Amino acid sequence: MQIPAPFDYVRASSVDNALALLDRHGAESRVVAGGHSLLPMMKLRLARPDWLIDINDLYELDYLLVDGPVLRIGAMARHTTLLESDDIKRLFPIITDAERVIADPIVRNRGTIGGSLCQADPAEDLSTVCHVLEAVAVVRGPAGERMLSMADFHRGPYETAVAQNELLIEVRMPIRASSGSAYEKVERRVGDWAVAAAGASVTLGSDGTISHVAVGLTAVGLDRTVTEVEAVLVGQAPTEALFVEAGRLASLACDPLADQRGPIDYKRHLADELTRRVLRAACRRAAASVSEITI
Amino acid sequence: MTILEDRPTNPAAGGHDRPIGHGRMQRKEDPRFVRGKGHYVDDIVLPGMLHGAILRAPVAHARLVSIDTTEALAHPKVLAVITGADLQALGLAWAPTLSMDVQAVLVTDKVRFQGQEVAFVVAEDRYAARDALELIQVEYDVLPPVVDARKAMDPGAPVIRDDLAGRTDNHIFDWEAGDKAETDAVFASADVVVSQEIVYPRVHPAPMETCGAVADFDPIDGRLTLYETTQAPHAHRTLFAMVSGIPEHKIRVVSPDIGGGFGNKVGIYPGYILAVVGSIVTGKPVKWVEDRSENLMSTSFARDYIMQGEIAATKDGKILALRTNVLADHGAFNATAQPTKYPAGFFHIFTGSYDLAAAHCTVTGVYTNKAPGGVAYACSFRVTEAVYLVERMVDILARKLDMDPAELRLKNFIKPEQFPYANKTGWEYDSGDYEPTMRLSMKMAGYDELRREQKEKRARGELMGIGISFFTETVGAGPRKDMDILGLGMADGAELRIHPTGKAVVRISVQSQGQGHETTFAQIVAEEIGIPPEDIDVVHGDTDQTPFGLGTYGSRSTPVSGAAVALVARKVREKARFIAAAMLETRPEDLEWEKGRWFVKGDPSVGKTIAEIAMGAHGTVALPEGIEGNLDAEVTYDPPNLTFPFGAYICVVDVDPGTGHVKVRRFIAVDDCGTRINPMIIEGQIHGGLTDGVGMALMEFIEFDAEGNCLGGSFMDYLIPTAMEVPDWETGFTVTPSPHHPIGAKGIGESATVGSPPAVVNAVVDALAPFGVVHMDMPCTPARVWEAMQGRTRPPV
Ligand SMILES: Cc1cc2nc3c(=O)[nH]c(=O)nc-3n(C[C@H](O)[C@H](O)[C@H](O)COP(=O)(O)OP(=O)(O)OC[C@H]3O[C@@H](n4cnc5c(N)ncnc54)[C@H](O)[C@@H]3O)c2cc1C
Q1: Chain B interface with A: residues with Cβ < 8 Å
Q2: Domain range annotation of chain A
Q3: What ipTM is given for this predicted complex?
Q4: Is the pTM of this model over 0.80?
C-alpha cells in the first residue's frame, strides 16, 4: 500500500461551498474529483496538499445536455457518462472514440472531464479533443464566472488558467452541421496512456469541400491544434493526397520526446499516420452526417 | 507441401481424458477466495502489533556517508529506527543468499542498487512509519554505476562488490555444459550455420500480493513465529535458524494464503529479517508489507540473459548442433534461487526437443548495479531462457533454409523410441512422444489454412504472422544424488491420517500460491484410498503442522510432493489391508482392493471399507503383530529423476503496418503433462502462463536508465497484460505419463510461461518477414516493432 503524506479532508456541499473552502484553506488545498490523477500523485508523494476538498457531492456539475447550438458538459461528468451518451456519439464521435481508449472501466467510472482538463497531463486525451472541438471552458471563482477558449485555458503541461481558488464548472462545445470527427490512439496496452494520438473535426460545405477543420495531437509535445493543416485543407475537396500532406505537416508541427513509449521518429511517424487516419474517418463521418444533423 | 496429416495418437494417451480422483471438480479453496475470505499476511493482526517501513536508496551506486535518525526517533509514534550499523553490531548486517553469496540486509558501506534497503522504522501504525522515513537524513557520495552487463567486465568498470575480500572485478561465475570440442567439430563441418544474438530482457513476476511478514518474537520463551509470504516455509525456517541463531525448534514459519508467487517469494528478503529484528528490539509483533514499487524495484526479477546462439544443420534441414555463450546479469548480489551446483539453473536443457549430435553452452554471471535475482517468474530454473533460445534459433534456421518451421521441427524431434533420452548436456528425458502433440496443435490451428490466408494477406500488404514453439520442460527438482539448495536435499514429505470415522487429513510440505493444492492433493489421496476428496483436508504452509520439504517452485509440487502424497496413501492402503484381514479373520494376501474397500477374493460381499478399517484400527480389533492402532503413515519422497512435460504452441498475430501494434488473434496450446489430475486446474495454470507469455513478448520490461534508475517501478511503467490483450485460449492435450512418477504426472505449473513467449515472438517475426526481419528482441511494443520494420531492430539492453 502506497501511503500519501498526511492531509485533512472535507466534503463540499455546493459549488459556492467548495469555493469558500478553497478560499478558507488557501494555497495548500486542492479539490478532488474522480481522484484518478490526484490520488496516485499523492500516494507517490509527488502531490502533498494539506487539505483535500471533495467535490463528488456536487451533483449539480454532473450533467450533459444539448442546449441549442452547444453541448454543455458539467465538470463532474464522468468518463463513463461521456462514453455512453448517444448525443455525444451522434454529435461528437471524437469524444466516444477517445473515451473508449481512456484508461479502463474502473478509472472511467470515477474520472471526470473537469479533472482531466485541469490535470492537463500532456498525454491526456480530452484536452486534445476539446482543442479540436474549439470548446469553451467555464471557470468560476470568487469574482464570478469566466469563459475561456482552450488556447487560453490550457497553458502547457500540467498548467491551466484555473486559479487555486477557482473551479472549472462546465465545458461547452459548439455544434456544427455537416460535421464529423474522430480520434485514434496508439497505446502499448489497453488502459495505457498514449504513445501518441490524434483527433480531427471536419465540417463540409454544401459543395462538398472542407469548410472547417481542426487537427490535434496528444503526447507529442504540441499544446495546440495543428494550425498548419487548416490552411491546406480548407476550401479543398477531401482526397487521400490532402490527408497525406496533412499528415506530413502534423509530423513537422509536433515536438515529441523519446521515452519508454518510443523514440522521436516513431512518434513523428505516428503523428503523420494517425492524422491521416482521423481525417479520413472524420471526412467519412461528415459526409454521412450531411443529411442527418439539423439544428 | 502439406504438413498436416493425421497420425494415430500415442496409445498410452489413449486419446481419452482419464483424470485422477474425480477429475474436473471445483476447487475446494475457492469458496473462501470468491467470497473475499482468503487470509493473507496483511490480514494478520496480532495484539500490540507495530508496523515497519523501509527507507530505500534513491540512487544505484553510492557510498554511504552518514545517517541521522534523530528526527525520525523524535516522531511521537516511532519506537525504533534500525540502521546498518545497528545490524552490524548484532552480526546481522549481511545475510547469506540462496546462491552462496551474501546480501546486505541494510546498507552499511555502499548502496549497490536503486531501492536497496537503508534503514527500518518501527512505529505504532504504518502511516507513521511511512511518514518517519522522510525524517531520516542520509548523505550519499554518488558513484558511477554499472548498468549494462556487457560493460560489467570492462577493465576500469567500477567494482560493485568491494565488500568481498579480494574482489577486483564484477565477475561472479563461469559455467559450462556439453562437449565443446565435439560441438565445434560438428559446426566446422556443417552445411549451414546461423548465429543470432538473442536477449531475454529483465522482467518481474509482479504477484498481485506484494511481499510481507509479521514477526512475533516472544522474549520469555525465545520463540519466533513468523508469518511470511513464502513459497518455501520449511527452507525459510532452516535458513532463519542458521542466520539468526534462534534454534530451529523455536521457530515457526507460517505461510497463509499467498496471492501469487511465481518465484518472487522463494528468497529471503531483507524486509522479512527486519521484521524479525524489529520484533526482537521492541518486544512486540511487527508487520512489514512492501508496496507495489518496492516489490517491482527490489525483489527477485527474472531473466536478463544476453545469449549468443548458433545452430548448425545439413542443407536439407537435419539439425546437428547448438551452441551458445550467455552473459547473465545477476544484479548487485548473487541471490538467484536454484540448485547449488547449477548457477545457471537448468539452462543446459537448451537442446530442446531435438535429437542433436552435439551441444555446448557457457554462461558467465556478472554483477551490475541493479536489483538482485534472476530465477523467478515461472521459469523452471531458467528453462524459460533455454526454450526461448532454441525455439528462436530453430525458426531462424527455418528461414535460412526456406523451410516451413513446423516441418523443420517435425523432422528433428527426438523419436518416441529414443526415450528415456540422454541429451548432450547431461539430462535424461523421462518420456516423450512429440509428433502427435505437434500434429494435434496444427490440426486445431488449421495450420495449412492459416498459411494460405497469410499468403493472400501478404499479397495485399497485410501483416499476419504464425509462430510455433515446441518446448520440453524440466521440472520436479530434484533427486538428492544430483542437487540441493544450500545443502538441503530437494525432497518433500507427506503425512496422511485417516480419522476413526474415515475422514482424512494429509499434510504436505509444499505451499500453494494459487495452484489449487488443497484440491489436487485431496484428489490424489481420493484416487488411492477411495474416499471422496471432500473428506480429505489438505494442510500446508505451517512448519508446526507439516513435514519438512522444500516448497513450491520450479513446477515441483505435483512431481515431488504429489508423488509423496500418492505413496503415503498407498502405504495407508497397505496397512489397511492388514487391519482388514484381522477384522475379517483372514490373511492379507487373500484380500483384494477396489476403490475404498478391501474384500475377500472370490467373495466380494465380504469386505471392509476404509472408514470401517479406520474405526477398527482405533477401536478394539485385535491387531496383527507389528501393526499399530491407527491408520496413519508418512513418507519422504526423493524423486529418481526430473520430469519433462512438453507442448506445442501456435500463435497467430496481426500487425498494424502503420503503427506497429501487435494483436494476438489466436493461440493454440497443446500440453502434455503426463497423467492429468484435475483438467480444470491444469487449464487454469495454462491460461495464466499463456497470459504471462503474451505479457513478456509484447510489453513487460524492467528497464534502467544510464544512471541506474529503475524505469519499471510502477504498473504505469511496468505493463502487465489484461484480458484485452489475450485471445480466447484454445487448449488441447496429449498424455505421455512419466515412467518414474507413482501416478505418471509431470507437473504443469510453468509450461505455458516457458513455452509461450517464443511462439508469440516467432509469430511477430514471421509477420515482419516482408521487411526482411529475421529476429527481434522482446518486448514487441508498437515502437520496437515499427523500428524493426525500418530495419532498425535493437536489443532492449
Ligand atoms: C490507470 C490510469 C490510466 C489512465 N489512462 C488515461 C488515458 O489513457 N487517457 C487520459 O486522458 N487519462 C487517463 N487517466 C486519467 C484519468 O482520465 C483521470 O481520471 C483524469 O485525468 C482526472 O480526472 P479526475 O476526475 O480523476 O481528477 P482528479 O484526480 O480528482 O483531479 C485532477 C486535478 O484536477 C483538479 N480538479 C479536478 N476537478 C476540478 C475542477 N472541477 N475544477 C478545478 N480543478 C479540478 C484537482 O484538484 C487535481 O489537481 C488514467 C488514469 C489512471 C489511474
Answers
A1: 126-127, 130-131, 134, 289, 291-293, 658-661, 698-699, 703, 711, 714, 716-717, 719, 721-722, 724-725, 781-783, 786-787
A2: 8-54, 59-174, 179-289
A3: 0.96
A4: yes
